[in-house]
Amino acid sequence: MVVEMKQENGGAAVAAAGEKQQQQQAPPQLVMSVKRGEATLVAPAEATPRGGQYYLSNLDQNIAVIVQTVYCYKPPPSPSSGNGDDDDVVGVLRDALARVLVHYHPLAGRLGISPEMKLTVELTGEGAVFVEADAACDLADVGDLTKPDPAALGQLVYSVPGAKHILEMPPMTAQVTRFRCGGFALGLAMNHCMFDGIGAMEFVNSWAETARGVAELTVPPFLDRSVLKARDPPVHTFPHHEFAEIPDVSDTAALYGAQELRYRSFCFDPDRLERVRALALALADGGRRFTTFEALSGLVWRARTAALGLAPEQRTKLLFAVDGRRRFAPPLPRGYFGNGIVLTNAVATAGELLSAPVFRAAGLVQDAVRMVTDEYMRSAVDYFEATRARPSLASTLLITTWSRLEFHGADFGWGEPVMSGPVTLPEKEVILFLAHGKERKSINVLLGLPATAMDAFQELMDDI
C-alpha cells in the first residue's frame, strides 16, 4: 500500500540484454547473520506535549501497515579525518534522532484507540525504539536491493518480538547494523498511518539534516491533521469502489496457497518505457495521450491478469494512490505530517482487459487519475467517517509508486546511501514502482507471484 512506503534502490543501469538475463536467473540466496544488541528507547531531546491524544485523519486510518526500508552506506572516513568511526555513526544517529523527535514528537508516542474507535497516537513521549547490531559479512555481500528478500534483509530491521498487532508496535523503530568492512545500514520500520512516502522522506531527510548539524530544518513538519477532518454531517458523493469486495471466482487463493511466492524485479529503461507508451498509444481512441505511469500501470495490470490465468468473467480491481497535497482546495500546508494520498480505482473484467490492446487498461488508469479532485478526496474522507469501511484487496492489484521519492538524499554526514530499498512488499497484491539508476530515468517494477504465474509474467515482459 502506500506506504508506498519503499525505498528507492540504486546501482548502475545495465544493458537490456543483461537485464533479461538477470531477471531469468534466480539470484543466489543471501545468507546473513546479524547479532542485535538490546533495544533502547530514544526520547525527544527536549520537552514535548504529553498526556493527550494526537489526531490521525481518516486518510491515515486506511493504511496502518508497517513499511520496512533499508539504507546502506559505505564505510565512514577514518577517525584521523575528523569525521569519526563506526562507533560515532551510532552515536550521531541516536543523538540526531532525539533532536529531530522534538519536531516530530508524535513518533515518540504509541498507537491507541480513540473514543470514536479510530486509531490515534497516545502522546506518551517514551521514544522511538533504537537497536545496534553487527553483521558477520561485508556490505558488498548484501548485493543490489532490486528484489525484496524478507529472510535476509529482514535482519537489518527491528521488529518488536511477540507483537501481534499494530497497537503493540511503536510508530517507528530504527536499527543500525555495522558490517565487517566498516560500512553500515540503517533499517527503519515505520507505520504508514504516521505518514505517506513524501512525509516519510521529509522525516528521514530532516533527521539527516539534524545529524549534519543544519541549524533549521528545510521542511519543518506541519503537525495539525485536523485540516482533513470529515465534514459534519459526512457527505460521500462518489461510489468509492476502492472499498468493494470482489468475489474470487478464479480461485486465485488456491494458486497462492499451493505454490511458492517468487519475487522478481523488472527494469524499464527510458527506451523500454517509450515502447510501453507506444503500446498504449497504438489504436488509442480519441487521440488520448498517456503518462509513463498510466501506460506502465495499464501494462502490468493486464500482464498480471493474464499471468494469473483469471477467468474472463473475473472482475479485477486496480488500486493506486494519488498525491492529494496540491489537489485539495486549499492545498495541504507544506511539510504536512500525515497521509496526503488518496486511493483511486479502476475496475474491469479479465476478459475486457485481455481482449483489448494495452490502451484499454491505460485509459482506465487515466480515468482513475482524473477522478481525483478535491470533492472526490473529501468524499473519501467522509465515506470512511460514515461507514468505517477499509479498502478491500480481494481480486485486487495495488500499485505503489516510489519513483519520485528522493531516497538518495538521506545523507547523515557520510554521503548518500550507496543503495536503499524495501525489505519486502507489504501484501501479495502489491506491485512497487521504484526509480533506478543514478539519473533516476529508469523504473524498477517489483512484484511477487506464485511460481507458475511469475514464469508467465516473465514471458510477457520479455516480449516488450
TrEMBL record:
**Keywords, comma-separated and alphabetical:** Acyltransferase, Transferase
Which Gene Ontology molecular function entries are recorded, alphabetically? acyltransferase activity, transferring groups other than amino-acyl groups
List, as start-end ranges, the regions of compositional bias called Low complexity: 8-26
Q: Would I find Transferase among this entry's keywords?
A: yes
Report which superkingdom the organism of origin falls in. Answer: Eukaryota
Q: Where is this region: Disordered?
A: 1-26
Which family does the similarity line name?
Belongs to the plant acyltransferase family.
Recorded hits in PANTHER family, A to Z, give: FATTY ALCOHOL:CAFFEOYL-COA ACYLTRANSFERASE (PTHR31642:SF310), TRICHOTHECENE 3-O-ACETYLTRANSFERASE (PTHR31642)
Q: What is this protein called?
A: Omega-hydroxypalmitate O-feruloyl transferase
Organism from which the protein derives: Sorghum bicolor (Sorghum)
Upper lineage is:
Eukaryota, Viridiplantae, Streptophyta, Embryophyta, Tracheophyta
